[in-house]
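Example 3.2
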Amino acid sequence: MPHDAFACQVRNASGQVTSAKPCRGFIFYQASAEMHKTREQIGLNVYVWPDGDRSVTYVRNGIWRLNEVRTEDPVTEADTRCWHNPISSRSFCVVPEG
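Structure, written as tokens:
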């Protein structure tokens, strides 16, 4: 399956990296039951960690979500893109490899 290589990171509330591992990024498209009639789909960015765990980001109706938690727009610095989880106070970040 086609994918992109990334370095995935989890950062604590103060911005320190608590986990950094190579991961793979996939894009999947899904439609909820009510969206089937209008043929609307949502592009899910699925990042798979080496242990098989996943982090999922997507935007629907202008609202970003990280693992189904509503979040602010991602912050981009250089090649790094981060989504902040307001519940856990951690951030998930991806850096393209290659």
